[in-house]
Amino acid sequence: MTDDSRVGQVGESWNDTFASRAMNMPPDPVHMETYDEYPSKFSPFFFVVIALAVFTGVSSFASYKSGNTTWWLVLLVVTLLLLFALRRFPKPDDLKDIAYENGLLIPAIVIDTQPLTLLALADMRGQEDVDLVWGCLKLPVKQLPHHTIAIDEKVPCVSMFGMPGNGYWSVFQPRPVAWGYDDPALVKKVTESLTAKDVDDVDEWAVLQELKDAMKAAPNNKVIYFDAALRQTDKP
After folding, report:
1. pTM for the model
2. In angstroms, rounded to a whole number, what is the distance separating the alpha carbons of residues 30 and 51?
């Protein structure tokens, strides 16, 4: 039996960041492969490293041909280090595993059943000393196992975020927990873990309800930003 005792607790470090609440358990690979709708692809950094490796490799060869012994050795070492980094780079399916296990748990609700569309919410702060900004995103999905297909159905998600800038995350990519785990009881437990338990906590499910009308005309898969008073604002 998979240990779900750490669901909702702080996640493991990934790329020098960690989620304040995460699944902390690996997804079901067969179930994930069946339901996860995001295409498998390498991180953009993978292609940056490839480009750098090609550049340093060519430069090393050119330096060797020109008789510059010092530079061709230095560039050769850099090229070998970059190639080593490429071998250790997570494969696309590994990135999905990381997203489910270590991504931030966030709330979403069903806002349309035909076509099936979710509205997801995330705190976009990448550091603590900046003002609260919400990111809201409409996500069309084809399937939603372990859920009732009905308006306002609560759908817990995991999400990875884009590179931060000015103290805020640039984008987020929600994945329903039910895409990665074939366990309806677990989905229910995660939903409950996202429910505010203290009067001082922000009720994120209530925030989603407040933003439904404002997001009706928003395009799919585009993050729309709102301040703490739920007024639409520019990208931080």
Report:
1. 0.75
2. 34
